[in-house]
Amino acid sequence: MKKLVVLTGAGISAESGIKTFRDSGGLWEGHKVEEVATPEGWLKNPQKVLDFYNERRRQLFEVKPNKAHLELASFESEWEVHVITQNVDDLHERAGSQNILHLHGELLSARSMHDERFKYRWTGDIRLGDLAEDGAQLRPDIVWFGEAVPNMAIAELSCSSADAMLIVGTSLQVYPAAGLVYAMEDSCPIIYLDPNAENSLHGIKSSRHFIIQKSACDGIDEALRMIRSL
Ligand code: APR
User: Fold this and answer.
1) What is the pLDDT of residues 198-217, one digit of tens each?
2) Residue 150 belongs to a domain with what CATH number?
3) Does any domain span residue 94?
4) Which of 51, 127, 189, 212 would be a feasible disulfide site paired with 219, CB 3.0-4.6 Å?
5) In a domain, 132, yes or no
6) What's the 8 CA to ligand 1 centre distance in angstroms?
7) Which of 64, 90, 104, 75 is nearest to 6 (CA)?
8) What is the DSSP letter of 43?
9) CA separation for the pair 12, 169 (Å, rounded)
10) Model-level pTM?
11) Does 39 reside within a domain?
12) DSSP tag of 10
């Protein structure tokens, strides 16, 4: 089987009802990144950070995977599909994808604020006073700005042996994740499905890139058709 790496961002979950970050009306319009998504913000006001992620976690139970998540999962019968997602939701899992790597953590996981080896599946709110086995406060298992991205090396390795890359719904503004396009072989086709793909093209070096300027649900069939024909 040929190998497809799929790099997804907030846009693939937009049609499920989850806000993106940088679009108009997105999460970073209503919240200050430095207050809710940095280690400094956590130390200054952990309650505010917990409130932000508790709200995101609760919302997960009101949304479901959309056509784009589902079709990517079905495509596993034709290609070996490796999903590398910047998303912290579990919609790829619920759609049935088998190989999923979360670059920026997961809402349904909580970890010790001191030792990331102590992590737990967590479906409710995280409260001040909820402790890990090492006695430290639990925090969202999210990779914040300024923190290392532990799964990056695995992601790069996966990209380097792929036959094609499909990018869905990301502005490619955040590194190191956006740099994965550079981990692909030069000759490797890159298909970029995003209504604003033209604006984010700077990150793509392949001479064989294809743009589909549509929403994830509207464009997924076209993207997969293109990949089948490679
Ligand atoms: N279908 C596909 N793409 C869409 C849709 C849709 N229905 N709606 C919006 N988009 C696209 C936008 O055009 C944009 O390119 O989704 C992208 C969303 O970009 P961002 O909000 O920047 O989200 P993302 O790229 O996932 O952000 C990366 O930034 O703040 C951090 O950690 C957070 O993982 C996140 C990272």
Assistant:
1) 877 765 655 688 999 999 99
2) 3.40.50.1220
3) yes
4) 212
5) no
6) 8
7) 75
8) H
9) 5
10) 0.97
11) yes
12) T
